[in-house]
């Protein structure tokens, strides 16, 4: 509100007070019957008219104050709302735009025409052809399209429009714009997670099928061959033939052991039949015997089994982590600890080997299975963290939440068990 306007208000207040004082004097004079002169009567009428005019102006000024306060509130909302807002005239020229619209479109000043922002966007010809531009729709409308950023990139947005007449009865269009970039990225991430989870599930199902086929099908057939060789060996008197049969028996037995090892690597039956802890203990014993690395295992928590999807993820992460230790750590000891709490399970794998630079590893895209471990944890809403220093070993820490039964069921459907 200007200083001149404030001075005018002050002047009217003074005049109103003066008029009320004069009216009071005239009332007193009337009460003493001292007003007989016509001039005084005119002065009285003038004073009364002046007072009513002053009161009227007082209400006008007060209403003007209320309107200005309301306008200031609307301006603040216009400037601080998170959605972009543009006001267009009947020729689709931008009359006004708020700061949010300027920010995500990269414009310091308002563009001349709204059409310049969307004319190059995907599908713009289809939107605008035959005069079917969404701006021409008189009803409240909602669309998704792309607007052109100042740097030339395309921004996915949703827009809603409404129409009204200004004080001069000229049509104006209000466009509310919401940036969908984060929403699209989140949607893409969700789709990627679903696809990845489906691939992991299919992989686990195929591993389970192959493991059973090797163990129950081919494994049993080779075992029958081994029994047959051992049965006929005592019946053969020719030493040369017996020697050939012995070599054949050893080869068959070795093949059977390798087949069983492959079946366990693909999908240990203990994981499905006995649970995660039993499967891990069996794997760690085989791992220690094979690589000569001591594995110290410690578990804390109740003995109830975890959801199948969680058990599968933790087993595969442990398996990958120990494999990396054998390949790269150059150490003779590794600690594996697991802690089951009320709302989460925590897995830690710590080696005391030569370590490495995690940043260099990620920078050169040599994941050493890190991506797979991260994905398995992420699919279950968990976190994966790896810390390592040259000469000081490596630690992997995984946190997986223990969700409600219905949520676990959904995850198992996605990831498999």
From TrEMBL:
Domain Histidine kinase span(s) in chain numbering: 217-404
Claim: Iron-sulfur is one of the keywords in the record: yes
One GO term describing the cellular component: cytoplasm
Reactions catalysed: ATP + protein L-histidine = ADP + protein N-phospho-L-histidine
EC assignment: 2.7.13.3
Entry-linked InterPro entries: HATPase_C_sf, HATPase_dom, His_kinase_dom, PAS, PAS-like_dom_sf, Sensor_HK_TwoCompSys, Sig_transdc_His_kin-like_C, Sig_transdc_His_kin_sub3_dim/P
Principal localisation: cytoplasm
Signal peptide: none
Pfam families xref list: HATPase_c (PF02518), HisKA_3 (PF07730), PAS_8 (PF13188)
Domain PAS: start-end pairs: 70-106
Record-annotated membrane-spanning stretches: 12-33, 39-61
PANTHER family (alphabetical): NITRATE/NITRITE SENSOR PROTEIN NARX-RELATED, NITRATE_NITRITE SENSOR PROTEIN NARQ
NCBIfam families in the record: sensory_box
Function: Member of the two-component regulatory system NreB/NreC involved in the control of dissimilatory nitrate/nitrite reduction in response to oxygen. NreB functions as a direct oxygen sensor histidine kinase which is autophosphorylated, in the absence of oxygen, probably at the conserved histidine residue, and transfers its phosphate group probably to a conserved aspartate residue of NreC. NreB/NreC activates the expression of the nitrate (narGHJI) and nitrite (nir) reductase operons, as well as the putative nitrate transporter gene narT.
The protein's name in its UniProt record: Oxygen sensor histidine kinase NreB
Lineage start: Bacteria, Bacillati, Bacillota, Bacilli, Bacillales
């Amino acid at each position: 509100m200007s200083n001149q306007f404030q001075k005018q208000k002050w002047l009217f207040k003074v005049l109103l007070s003066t008029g009320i004082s004069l009216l009071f004097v005239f009332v007193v004079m009337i009460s003493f019957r001292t007003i007989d002169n016509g001039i005084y009567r005119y002065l009285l009428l003038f004073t009364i008219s002046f007072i009513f005019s002053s009161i009227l102006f007082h209400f006008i000024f007060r209403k003007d104050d209320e309107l200005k306060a309301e306008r200031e509130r609307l301006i603040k909302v216009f400037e601080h709302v998170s959605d972009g807002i543009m006001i267009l005239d009947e020729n689709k020229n931008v009359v006004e735009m708020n700061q949010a619209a300027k920010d995500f479109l990269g414009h310091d000043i308002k563009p001349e025409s709204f059409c310049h922002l969307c004319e190059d966007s995907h599908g713009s010809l289809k939107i605008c052809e035959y005069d079917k531009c969404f701006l021409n729709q008189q009803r409240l409308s909602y669309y998704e399209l792309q607007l052109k950023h100042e740097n030339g990139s395309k921004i996915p947005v949703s827009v809603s429009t409404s129409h009204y007449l200004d004080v001069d009865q000229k049509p104006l269009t209000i466009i509310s714009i919401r940036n969908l970039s984060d929403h699209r990225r989140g949607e893409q991430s969700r789709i990627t997670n679903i696809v990845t989870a489906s691939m992991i599930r299919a992989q686990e199902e195929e591993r389970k099928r192959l493991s059973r086929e090797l163990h129950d099908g081919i494994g049993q057939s080779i075992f029958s061959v081994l029994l047959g060789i051992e049965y006929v060996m005592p019946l053969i008197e020719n030493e040369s033939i017996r020697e050939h049969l012995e070599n054949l028996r050893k080869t068959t037995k070795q093949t059977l052991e390798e087949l069983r090892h492959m079946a366990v690597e693909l999908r240990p039956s203990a994981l499905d039949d006995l649970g995660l802890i039993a499967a891990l203990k069996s794997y760690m014993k085989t791992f220690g015997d094979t690589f000569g690395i001591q594995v110290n295992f410690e578990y804390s928590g109740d003995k109830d089994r975890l959801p199948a999807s969680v058990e599968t993820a933790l087993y595969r992460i442990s398996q990958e982590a120990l494999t990396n230790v054998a390949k790269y750590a150059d150490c003779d000891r590794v600690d594996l600890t697991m802690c089951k709490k009320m709302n989460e399970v925590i897995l830690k794998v710590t080696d005391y080997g030569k370590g490495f630079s995690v940043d260099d590893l990620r920078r050169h895209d040599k994941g050493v299975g890190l991506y797979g471990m991260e994905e398995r944890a992420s699919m279950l809403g968990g976190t994966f963290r790896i810390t390592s220093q040259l000469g000081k070993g490596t630690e992997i820490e995984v946190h997986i939440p223990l969700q409600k039964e219905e949520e676990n069921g959904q995850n198992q459907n996605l990831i498999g068990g």
